[in-house]
Amino acid sequence: MKGLILSGGKGTRLYPLTYTNAKQLIPVANKPVLVRVIESIRDAGVDEIGIVIGQTGPQIQEVIGDGSKHGVKITYIPQESPDGLAHAVKISRDFLGDERFVMFLGDNVIQGGITQLISDFAKSDWNSQIVLKEVENPTAYGVAKLRPDGSIEQLIEKPKNPPSNLALVGIYMFDPSIWEAVNSIQPSRRGELEITDAIQWLVDAGKRVFPHVHKGWWIDTGKPTDMLEANSLVLEELVPSIAGDATVENSQIDRRVTIESGAKIINSVVRGPTIIGENTIVENSYIGPFTSIYHDVTIQNCEIERSILLENSTIADIGNRIQDSLIGRHAIVRRSDEKPKALKMNIGDHSNLWVV
User: Fold this and answer.
1) Dist. CA 136–CA 130, nearest whole Å
2) Sequence-distant (≥ 6) Cβ neighbours of residue 122 within 8 angstroms
3) Residues of the chain where predicted confidence (pLDDT) is lower than 70
4) 140-168 as b/e, with b when 16 or more CB fall inside 10 Å?
5) Quick check: 327 and 314 in contact, CB under 8 A?
6) In which element (H, E) is residue 308 found?
7) Element (H, E) at 86
8) Residue 101 in contact with residue 4, Cβ under 8 Å?
9) pLDDT, tens digit (0-9, with 9 covering 90-100), for 20-74
10) Measured distance CA(62)–CA(287) in Å, rounded
11) Topology given in CATH for the domain delimited by 238-334
């Protein structure tokens, strides 16, 4: 069995962070979302993985490499334009061959991994298995209608009157019958080959398509609020640890805090669940729960809570508490006491700034 990860999206809903960084590389609890997906597939016993890449492909290749550091073999599959999930499957035929495979959207975070899913599919005679999740607002998703035997009868995209509250999660398993499906469907109204249309083709052709209803949490990290929520959920699952070469001086560190190699915590209070990255310096500051601070960050004389700070950023001398924030790489947030006092800023497209 092989794995296929779709990682070609631009991440427009996460602008401005994703102007200069692939959305799948933004870390959740200090580990890029794409790495979490790779590890989920690896832990399920699948070590040959294709990654479909788009404009951010060079960044992804630089970070992930050949996959050896994650215990897998990676093959990169360029997608020249974002023509739909079924199109991504279609162009992956040479890599996948006639093997069964699991397809995973590269910006999804799911609780508990997919080991049981892979095992169930491998032992079955099903042509496809899809993952569903009960949601409160099914009108915002693709929704599944089930037959009495539990198999899929129909998939309906964002229905006004949903037949169920079971929404499609971005994890799918297929056997070789998917090739006839993706070659038989037509582009949707938005000009893309939709994976829901391909799955519906399988259903209409009499193929055996069964769901797995996921009971844990699942987050599509497409928006800043989703990213912060995923970060909070994953932080709660971390087993806290303090690296042997980390420095903690005159500070209060609660038992739910992870401090990575080379980090320094000086005259500060850190309350978890929180993670402090490699070689990061926190001085005279308060770091509150559900905060992930990545590598080589400097924080001085600040209060920060429920936020994600990316590498090489600097936050200093801010009087108000920073919370519910995403702060990008190499960003500088600093207070100046020079007169005349004024707000000074360089703000990218689609940025949000609140001044209190």
Assistant:
1) 19
2) 1, 100
3) 9-21, 221-222, 336, 340-356
4) ebbbbebeeeeebeebbeebeebeebbbb
5) no
6) strand 308-309
7) helix 85-90
8) yes
9) 567 788 888 999 989 999 999 999 999 999 999 988 889 899 999 999 999 999 9
10) 31
11) UDP N-Acetylglucosamine Acyltransferase; domain 1 (2.160.10)
C-alpha dist (Å) from residue 295 to 259, 285, 289, 298, 328: 11, 17, 18, 9, 12
DSSP 256-293: TEEE-TT-EEES-EE-SSEEE-TT-EEES-EE-SSEEE
Could you name the CATH architecture of 2-235? Alpha-Beta Complex (3.90)
Residue 139 has which token pair?
């009108």
Exposure class string for 303-325: b at 16+ Cβ within 10 A, else e: bbbbbbbbbbbbbbebeeebeeb
pTM: 0.88
Q: Please answer whether residues 296 and 278 qualify as being in contact, where contact means their C-beta atoms are separated by less than 8 angstroms.
A: yes
37: amino acid identity, one letter:
V
Q: List the domain boundaries for the chain.
A: 2-235, 238-334
